[in-house]
Amino acid sequence: MENQLAAGCVIMASGLSRRFGSNKLLAEFCGQPMLCRAFAATDTQVLAARIVVTRSAEVKALCEEHGVPVLLHSLPGRNDTVRLGLTALLEQVPGLFGCMFLPGDQPLLCRETVEAMIGISGWDHETRLERQKETEREIFRLGHRFKNDPDPLVGSPVLFGRGYFSELCALPEGKGGNVLLKKYPEHVHTVYIADRNELADADTPEALAKLEALARRNG
Questions:
Q1: N or C: which end of the chain has fewer CB within 10 A?
Q2: CA distance linking residue 217 with residue 133, whole number of Å
Q3: C-alpha distances out from residue 104 to 95, 127, 201, 205, Å
Q4: Which tens digit of pLDDT belongs to each residue from 32-57?
Q5: Closest to 142 measured CA to CA, from 177, 184, 188
Q6: Residue 21 — left, alpha, or beta (φ > 0 → left; ψ -120 to 50 → alpha)?
Q7: Residue 151 confidence (pLDDT)
Q8: Poorest-pLDDT segment among 14-18, 27-31, 81-85, 86-90
Q9: For the chain, how far is it from start to end, CA to CA, in angstroms?
C-alpha cells in the first residue's frame, strides 16, 4: 500500500474465558482453532504489522505454528494487554500512524472489513499533509445499523490514531481503550457493516456453535 500510512493491529488474546469454561480461542471453529479466524482477518497488506498478545502458552504455540508474531505475558489487566501490544508494534514500526485493537473471539469478522476500516480512515499521504493533526486524533469503531432503530450496535475492532498512543499506554488498571471512546466521543467515527454477526463474540460454547452454523451456512 504505497500511499497508505502505517497502521498496525493488536490481536487481543489475554482473556480468561470464564464464561466459556476453557480457552475459547483454541476451541474448534470450522475445523480449526477459533483464533485462526483472527489470523485470516488480519492477513492483509494494509497492516504494516500485527501481534497477538496472550497469557496462554498454547496460544503462543499456535501463533508460532502459523507464523504470526506473538507476545506472551503474565500481567493481569486489559490495560496491560493494550500497552504491551502497542509498545511492541511501535518497536517494529516507529512511524505507526494508527493502531487497531481486535478481539480474538469474533470469528465472523472479515478481512474485507478490517481493510475497509483502515481505508475509510483516509490515512494516506495526501490526507496527512492536509489535516495531519486531525487524523492523529481520530478513532474508528465497527458498527451495524438496524432498520428503523436510531441506536446502532457498536463494538470492535477499534482503530486509534497516533494522537492517542500515549494515553493507550497509560490506561487505568483493568481498563481498555473504551475509556478513550467515552472521554472523546466527538472524535469517534463508526464504520457501518451490513452483517451484524461480524460484531458477535463467542463468549459461550452455545454462542460459538451458533456462529459456526452461520459460517457454514454462508460458505
A1: C
A2: 45
A3: 25, 31, 9, 15
A4: 999 999 999 999 999 999 999 999 99
A5: 188
A6: left
A7: 84
A8: 14-18
A9: 29
The fraction of the chain above a pLDDT of 70, given in percent, is: 89
C-alpha cell recorded at residue 158: 477499534
Rounded to two decimals, the pTM is 0.90
Exposed (0-12), middle (13-18) or buried (19+): which is 72, by Cβ within 10 Å?
Answer: middle
Which residue, chain included where needed, has cell 499506554? 169
Distance from C-alpha of 102 to C-alpha of 11, rounded to nearest angstrom: 5
C-alpha cell of residue 151: 441506536
Task: Give 206's Cβ-side CA count (13 Å radius).
Answer: 1
Residue 195 burial (CB count, 10 A): 14
210, amino acid identity: K
